[in-house]
Amino acid sequence: MGPGGQLGLRVSSSIAPTEDGCCRGLQGLELWGPAVNWGSDHRLPSAAACCASCKAMCTHGDCRCNSWVFCGDETRCGHRFGECWLKKQKDAMAPSVIAKGDDVMWTSGLVFGKGEGIVGLETNLGTIRIQLLPGCAPHSVDYFIEVLGLRNCAGCRFYRAEGRGNLWDTKGEHINNVAYGPPYALLQGTLEVDGLPFKERGKEACPALRRGSIAWVGSGPEFLVSLANHGEWKEAYTVFGSVMPEDMGIAEEMALMPTSTEVWSNVTVKVLRDPVYFKVKRSTSSGAP
């Protein structure tokens, strides 16, 4: 793949999670829960439109709707074709599921309000909080919900760490007329839990990587945290979340840890001499568990 600072260093807070243009759900999933808008009286042309109608009920981070259910297969749905049910889950990170599988005709998705959908990668350096993006990467968010239910992430770790060097500034902007690496301004690790086979996922939304973006390498379970804006990688990676801006200092500190140089498929990389293991836990925008 083309794939410095330290803790306490002032780094750009311009990074922010965004789902502009992203409104996806999971096919073969029917979420349950109290309806705030009945599908029998609310029909729309697509799952994306149903998702957007749920997002429209979020104002200033307060979401009256945090989940939606749509029937988009005219043959299977029959008279229910086009129904868009808007619902309010008691806990959007532990949604109520009534049916899941290839035989389910519904498509469902989640919408996170302010302070929702945040997971923490808890390391010995501190906790890196990630705002998950269910509209861009619903399959990836579904995996995190599964991992949280296991209450462990044995084997999850960072094993590669490369700072920005003199190639990108503190805002993640590439400096003109210099190379794009090495180093490549990223952290890399794995989210595969020991004893739980990882199901490879196809690409979801692949916007350009920005400073703070967190994305799968290939179809996972390897992932990366970008320490810079990597427009040169085009739209190659599924982005499933964004590091909270105030936690980027922890990522920058990890990039300063001792490494060894290796060559992977003709690419020179820096591998941590001591991998940084982490636990995956629910978190909030304030950092409280």
From TrEMBL:
Coiled coil: none annotated. Pfam families: Pro_isomerase (PF00160). Residues 119-271 form the PPIase cyclophilin-type domain. It comes from Oryza brachyantha. InterPro entries: Cyclophilin-like_dom_sf, Cyclophilin-type_PPIase_dom. This is PPIase cyclophilin-type domain-containing protein. Gene3D superfamilies: Cyclophilin-like, Hepatocyte Growth Factor. GO terms for molecular function: peptidyl-prolyl cis-trans isomerase activity. It comes from the Eukaryota.
